[in-house]
Design brief:
Layout (H helix, E strand, L loop, with lengths): L2 E5 L2 E3 L5 E8 L8 E6 L6 E6 L6 E3 L7 E6 L4 E6 L8 E6 L9 E5 L2
Parallel strand pairs: 2-10
Antiparallel strand pairs: 1-3, 3-8, 4-5, 4-9, 5-6, 7-8, 9-10
Amino acid sequence: QVQFVESGGGLVQPGGSLRLSCSASGFTFSTESIDWYRQSPGKEREWVAQISPSGDRTIYLDSVKGRFTISRDDGKNTVYLRMNILKPEDTAVYYCKTSFGPWGQGTQVTVSS
C-alpha cells in the first residue's frame, strides 16, 4: 500500500538548518509529483513545496522561497526538504504526500532559542 515516512526533524535555533527526508513506497515514485506540507499547533495544514516527476520544476510557498529547497532521488524513492535560515514560525509537523494515499506521521520541526 501507499506509504510515506518522514524523518529528519528536530530542535534548531533560529537561523539554523535542517534537512527532512521523505521515504515513499507502494506506487511508481518516479512518475509522481511530491509535495511537502506542514501543520502548526492550532492551525490548518498548509502546503509548502512541490517537485515535479522529473525534478525539473519546483514551486514554493512564498514565505519559504529562497530558504527551502525541495529535491528528489528516484533511485531511493526519497524526497528531501532542505530548510535554511529557519524561523520560529517554521515550527510545525512536516509531512510529504502525493495526490493520493494516506498521510504519514510527519516529523516535528521546532525552531527556538
